[in-house]
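User: structure tokens for this one?
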Amino acid sequence: MDEEGTPLEISAAVSEEGISFAVEEVLGTSDEIELSIYPNPATRFVNIQIQGEASVRIMDLKGAIILEQSFVNRAELNVENLKESIYLMEIRNADGVSVRKLIKE
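Assistant:
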């Protein structure tokens, strides 16, 4: 928890570049939009299902945007060429924004 009592999540990732640490505020479920992401971990493709128009960004843990795409209701993203690592997926629609972890194997 931080000084104000907000829960924090601390995570670490090991990759060829070294070890990365991240500290994030843990958001309540009321702050997230309803969606489905599968499979996760992913090897070739990852599917996203959400109601209506949306966009997705896949970012590495340094914040670099790897992939960005808009879609309606469903998207199948090809992640086959991504290195095995942990990525962040930022999904936006009219209801808000959700950031989820994507594990690429």
